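Inputs:
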Amino acid sequence: MNQQRREFLKRAGLAGLAGLGAVAGIIPTFALEKTDPSVFSNRPVPGATRWGMLIDTRKCRDGCDECVAACHRTHNVPDFGDSKNEIKWIWKAPYEKAFPTSSRQFGSRNLDGLEVLTLCNHCAEPPCTKACPTKATFRRWDGIVAMDYHRCIGCRFCMAACPYGSRSFNWLDPRPAIETYSPDYPTRERGVVEKCNFCSERLVKGLQPACVEACRGKAITFGDLNDPESAIRTMLAENETVQRKPELGTLPSVFYII
Amino acid sequence: MIEKALKGNRTYWSWVALLCVIIAAGLSAWSRQLNLGLGVTGMGRDISWGIYIAQFTFLVGVAASAVMVVLPYYLHNQKAFSKIVIVGEFLAVSAAAMCMLFILADMGKPQRVLNVLRYPSPRSMVFWDVLALNGYLLLNLVGGWAVLGAERKGVPPAPWTRALIYLSIPWAFSIHTVTAFLYAGLPGRHLWLTAVLAPRFLASAFAAGTAVLILLAFILKKRAGYDVGGEAVRKLAVLCAYAGTANFFLLGTEFFTAFYSNVPGHMHSLQHLYFGLHGHAQFVPWMWLSLLSGLGAVAVLLSPALRSSTPWLLGACSVLVFSIWIDKGVGLVIGGFLPTPLEEIVDYVPTVTEIGVTLGIWAVGLLLLTMLLKVVVDVRTRD
């Protein structure tokens, strides 16, 4: 009797697993997201990639926000029209707000009214992932600081821990506030935190991040910081660049040419 | 023993009924928040924790202060505290329960709360705080209840109760230290990024907590005929005076370090709270009210003549609790978010829903405390 029951449970379990596997195969959204680093790097060794971004503010045009629009459209970022409930993945901020500790006494005229792109820095030492009590936000093997919207309990500890204000919380149901729905990225529920994901869902397909693609001035360079041959590393070697709040030891993966 | 909380006179039941009405109002506010999201509160993208986490932080202190009676009684055999020890322990139980409810109320996805245990993350201070708070609640509830039960039966308490009580002493320090570490380890939040945060939390906790205990002792004497003894209250008043002094001393050291060093990041939050920054001065009147009233209360408590007069003592204790509640709640938690990481100042005003949930949780805590203390009073005064 017991033996039979055991056999039955075994088979039922196997059948269930097989079913799940089939579902994952048939419906791509069920499959776990995998990034193929070989698309961007010629060193396809897992653990060796660290995605990074270099923003050349000299090429970034005043009043243009196409990268912001492209990102928010791609990721179904809602627009509530007020700053209290606002959700943003990438946005333009005045230079002195993005770099509050930089010297402004007798500053260059070029900095007057300069607006710079700000987004999640995908830090190599992220304070947010350390603060998360459920590992709902975590640093992936390729350096991307990712979110698991299904695990997040909405405690907002990561928001308190982020020194860049890069994280947003869904204070209200985001779905009614999405203007045009994009089928390429899941919408979120109210009560969870979200932020820039370096377009990990586009990297899987071998695409550049949406903001990089949308920028007509080619102001954003994206690539593997751990690959000395990559375009981003070449540019970093040839230009004077800065990171936001480097004194905090978070090791941001987003660099700027001012 | 719990049946003793179900028998009482008209005043007792009126008080319980009042608390139940407030709890019902709180539940209705909470259901609105659950249905619509935390957007119904005054919190937002920049000030992402509000009065819930502020109450939580204040109440962890009240919970920790039980050690101020447990330690002298069990470790130093101070017999004067024999009747107030159980009051301190049950106050800790109620305060710890409120803390957990405030955390739950603050969560975007409260239905996922067990994820904290399903995916234990020892690098996160919340993980340790959940363990510390739950452990502390259980230690005090089980320890206090067992001692009281033994007393009711007229037998000495079981030896294991003593082990629990001894454990609760370091545990009390740990809950407030870990709570301070929730804040003190975050880069870029300069008001919190200070090594004296944990000592300051302990000092303010021991000041506010003993003040609450003194007030409770008077209520119990007047309303329930349970006298913890004048000696206990006198000793608590002295502890309260010195803990309050330590608290303001530590606050003073914060001011010195920030303003003497002249480092803008270290000054900005204090400037914003006490003097206003970039034309924003929302908290300034509150912070000065807290500072001046708190210093006044400590001065009264330090004077032996004044603190032995009941009206002065009760007045000073009430004012000190209020002062620390503003300082630790409004100032420290909410003020810690300002200026924001992008050097902006935004305003925060709690909504009616938020205040409703807050009052509801306070009422749950008071109801729990009322019932626990009713059991204590009935067991102790039955002859």
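The interface with chain A takes residues 36-39, 43-46, 48-49, 103, 106-110, 112-113, 115-116, 118-119, 121, 123-127, 130, 182-183, 186-189, 264-265, 337, 340-344, 346 of chain B (CB under 8 Å). Flag for discussion at group meeting.
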